[in-house]
Amino acid sequence: MRAWLLARKDVVANLLAAALCLLVVAVALRLGLDAHARGEMDIRAIEIPRWTLFALLGGGFGLCGLEFLRHALSREAAVQDRTSPLTGEA
């Protein structure tokens, strides 16, 4: 098992990063729903509903999570794991 993890370290790293991004999405969703239910406003230069900030945060991290999943599940990741980073040869 450990040898497999070492051989696929890029895939494992991408899966962990995707999981972390999805965790942030879940937290942002929860905070956004709370802010919407309370009717909270964010007053800085302009006045906007606070839930919009959490929606943007969740959307951005959601897209990052999808990108990490795409990298983890793509064939290029498997090929890259088996090639030398300097020469590109197996």
Automatic annotation (TrEMBL):
Is Transmembrane given among the entry's keywords?
A: yes
Span-the-membrane segments of this chain are 12-31, 51-69
Organism domain of life:
Bacteria
UniProt keyword annotations, A-Z: Membrane, Transmembrane, Transmembrane helix
| Name of the protein described by the UniProt record | TRAP transporter small permease subunit
Q: Which organism is it from?
A: Paracoccus amoyensis
Its organism's taxonomic lineage begins at: Bacteria, Pseudomonadati, Pseudomonadota, Alphaproteobacteria, Rhodobacterales
